[in-house]
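go over this chain:
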Amino acid sequence: MPITLSHPTQIVQGEIQLTSSKSESNRALIIQSLCDGAFEIDNLSIADDTRILKELLDKSSSKKETVRADNDADKNSVQDPDNYQQTWSVGLAGTAMRFLTAFLAIKEGEVVLTGEHRMKERPIKVLVDVLKQLGADVEYKEKEGYPPLKITGKKLEGGKVIIDGSVSSQYISALMMIAPKLKHGIQLEFMGEIISKPYINMTIEMMSYFGVSVHWDENAIVVAPGEYQSRTISIEADWSAASYWYSVVALAQEADVILLGLQKESLQGDAIIQHIYKNFGVETAFVDGGIRLTKNDSLVDTFEFDFTNCPDIAQTVAVTCAALNIPAKLSGLKTLRIKETDRITALQIELNNLGFNVELDVDDVIIHSLPLSMIKQSSVKTYNDHRMAMAFAPLGLMNEIIIKDESVVTKSYPNFWQDLKKIGFSIN
């Protein structure tokens, strides 16, 4: 359903309880399911991706209980867990697909793991190949290299494997988190450039928090066999979600916004947003419980940045540069082509449709300066991508804008539209 955004004053003030990090939440859920002891996760994300992952992990737990109950009920008719097959759909949750592929490979039973049409177009061969090196039983049900997957879980020995680090850090995190449950742990050796390193560091820090030994030395990560230790964990607010507020402040005439839940010492690579937006006149001050955003008139003449380690905030920054008429080159974006949509192409199309001048140089986005009165149309397609909707929403401060599908934001930030209303946006 379309949604129309505008702002009557272009003055934004308010306090926002920022949505929780789904990256941290999803890792915590996997570790919780691999831990022999129970522990609490405080401030768990309410994003669709996290909700879906939790529901499917709960199925894994209930599946075991069902098998036990059936065995207790009829001792003469024992149900073999390895023949207990279910079909699980992750919808559009890419992290859930990657993390569950590794998780299910070591859990008893048989599961067909699938998703919506776009998920079946997102490659997973690199991860499956490594799991097969470890002895996992994974089959492609349709197209080679893509979901759906038939996964028959079993005990894996572990050991040394080689992985292409240039495709997705989620593959690496998925393997790392199951590694303590392997007899010999795992030694991951990388070929190619390692992308999104902060997400790998996040996984290492969270595993270490739960008592697992992880060592990253140059081109290899070693995880020793062991057990996760039960500890309550509190999830930080989402720096990726904060990026949209940085864009709002950059495009406003006046701004004073407090975002609650963010920490100065963060596990999230997207915390780099606080430094990026200094180029666009946004000041960050850490206050009790979060950050305070204000603005000045100090803008750079041109902007260049490599987003290899923080690709999720690239769309937001691109829209900000276009709106502020700052010529820019955004690089390190190749992983955006295999997200919910081809984000690079979608970004170019929608910015050009609005009247901006954007071209692509392979996977780089080049934004050229133009007179600021060039907007041709007021609607933006989302391509079933939550980040497209939220990255373009701040343009409502400059002109009335229509976002074609309001519901996509539930994937990562369900309260986004309500939070925009709190700082004066008119939404119809």
Notes: The chain has two domains: 3-20+237-427, 22-63+82-234. Residues 64-83 have pLDDT under 50 and may be disordered. The chain has twelve helices and 22 strands.
